[in-house]
Amino acid sequence: MYKYIIMGIQGCGKGTQAKLLCDKYDFTHISIGDIFRWHIANHTKLAAKINRIISKGQMVGDDLVAKVVSERMSWHNWNYGFVLDGFPRNFAQAEFLFESYNINAVIHMDAPDSLVTERVMARRVCSQCGLDYNLIGHRPKVEGICDVCGGKLLQRSDDHPEAIQKRIEDYHAKTEPMLTFFRRINILHSVDATRSIPEVFEEIRKSLGLPAQPKAMNSNTLSTEALT
Ligand SMILES: [Zn+2]
């Protein structure tokens, strides 16, 4: 069983790398952002709770996130393994996660604050269909207009310099202790996240010791391990 955590500041590209890993090796992508978006799209009780918190101008707390994650993890719906994206958020959660799930590796996407700030500032989202764009990597064909539906592209309301700075400071304050912990128990794999998507992916793959051809992996070790 392959149990991974992927970590990095917002804008480091961890969601993209998590998806690539899961597509290639048939792992289950457990994205906290996606889980929350699903709740909001489906108007669940939890979504109502989140909306109440946000409308008061507060942040969704670590405890609520932890509850949602444990619920999701209890499904155990992975055959070969999972990549957990967006969790843990603090040292206590990191410790809990490691003890409960026997995590094999933590992928740390290392990128300087200046780069992630630049990437986040370049993000745009379609106001109609919700498709994500990035003025650095994924530009629309016509400026300000969605390629798919013709909707207007907007910047998210929390993607302004002060908010980004706050998220970066938060991240550093909570992350450094987690990284120290993961390094000490020898499961930390830091990769240089400043390079291109395929280059970063290759570094992750090699660092984790995953085969270049996943087929070979699935027919041998993975299938027997999945039964245990
Ligand atoms: Zn659109």
| Helix percent band | 40-55%
The H/E string reads EHEHHHEHEHEEEHEHH
Choose one word for the global shape. Answer: globular
- Could you tell me the radius of gyration in angstroms? 18 Å
CATH superfamily: P-loop containing nucleotide triphosphate hydrolases
CATH class membership: Alpha Beta
In DSSP terms (H or I, runs of 4 or more residues), the helix count works out at: 9
Q: Termini, distance in Å?
A: 9 Å
Count of spatially separate domains: 1
Backbone structural class: alpha/beta
> What's the CATH architecture?
3-Layer(aba) Sandwich
Strand order of the largest sheet: 2-3-1-4-8
User: pLDDT under 50 segments (min length 5)?
Assistant: 223-228
Strand composition percent: 15-25%
User: Which kinds of small molecule does this entry bind, naming each only once?
Assistant: zinc ion
